[in-house]
Amino acid sequence: MEYKTLEDYVGHTPLVRLKRITAGRGNVILAKLEGNNPAGSVKDRPALSMIVHAEARGDIRSGDTLIEATSGNTGIALAMAAAMRGYHMILVMPENQSVERRQTMRAFGAELVLTPKEGGMEMARDVAEQLRDEGKGIILDQFANADNPLAHFEGTGPELWEQTGGTITHFVSSMGTTGTIMGTSRYLKSRNPEVCIVGCQPEEGSQIPGIRKWPEAYLPKIYDKTWVDRLEYVSQADAEEMTRRLAREEGIFAGISSGGAMQVALRLAAGLENAVIVSIVCDRGDRYLSTGVFPA
């Protein structure tokens, strides 16, 4: 008998219909539960993709040290993938990310380098590049690595097409590295150019883990705005409230970026009829418990 390994369970996540949080008028709102991946987030897909493809090209080999700047989920996913495939992982992240994220990364054996919260992800990316230039390791670079969106072109997109029977009309995704929205958009539009791709970004002044509006100099190189039909902005308060509603009213225990994307999905549905709207639930809520988003 041939047994499966952990890698075989990355992807193929459930797609579930919301039953109580609805907008009526025949609309169907679906949640893609990426927290069901082995390390608990949508980032399991690109993390494994970047390592496997780099190995295939001969860019890295087991025993090497890998470096990545992260706000959390990619770091956790890379730490898991590195543990599976025999790499040392150095993760650079702002110090204000949740303690659960840091503990999870260290549990997988990763080394953490924390940067001042005032510098945000921009400083974390700069420090990662400095470590690479000092010869400390190799950067996979989720922000510029084509194997990031490729994971969604080959995985997330085809899954959604199959799970909806090709009836999907709208796809909503929070935007961080933009890998999820880029790869999924390319696949869905290859099947039906009329599928509307909606990106979720934070309103001015809002800080939502996993969602970013990048300064021009730090805009991910994998991002191509032609694959996003519209941008919608969400406040931190609305994202957090929808996160709590998903848990209370639907039993979906998710992170704050997922609440932001779902808030946008509901907003879209208010002006639509008979639409099939898919929103990405990026991760699970347990890595946000210390942030205070959920009542104690």
TrEMBL record:
Requisite cofactors: pyridoxal 5'-phosphate
GO biological process, one term: cysteine biosynthetic process from serine
Biological pathway: Amino-acid biosynthesis; L-cysteine biosynthesis; L-cysteine from L-serine: step 2/2
Pfam families hit by this protein: PALP (PF00291)
Modified residues (N6-(pyridoxal phosphate)lysine): 43
Domain Tryptophan synthase beta chain-like PALP: 7-283
Amino-acid biosynthesis keyword on record: yes
Gene Ontology molecular functions: cysteine synthase activity
EC number(s) per entry: 2.5.1.47
InterPro entries registered for this protein in UniProt: Cys_synth, Cys_Synth/Cystath_Beta-Synth, CysM, P-phosphate_BS, TrpB-like_PALP, TrpB-like_PALP_sf
Binding site for pyridoxal 5'-phosphate: 73, 176-180, 257
Coiled-coil ranges from the UniProt annotation: none
UniProt catalytic activity: O-acetyl-L-serine + hydrogen sulfide = L-cysteine + acetate
Keyword terms, alphabetized: Amino-acid biosynthesis, Cysteine biosynthesis, Pyridoxal phosphate, Transferase
Enzyme class: transferase
Family: Belongs to the cysteine synthase/cystathionine beta-synthase family.
The protein, known as: Cysteine synthase
Organism this protein belongs to: Pseudothauera nasutitermitis
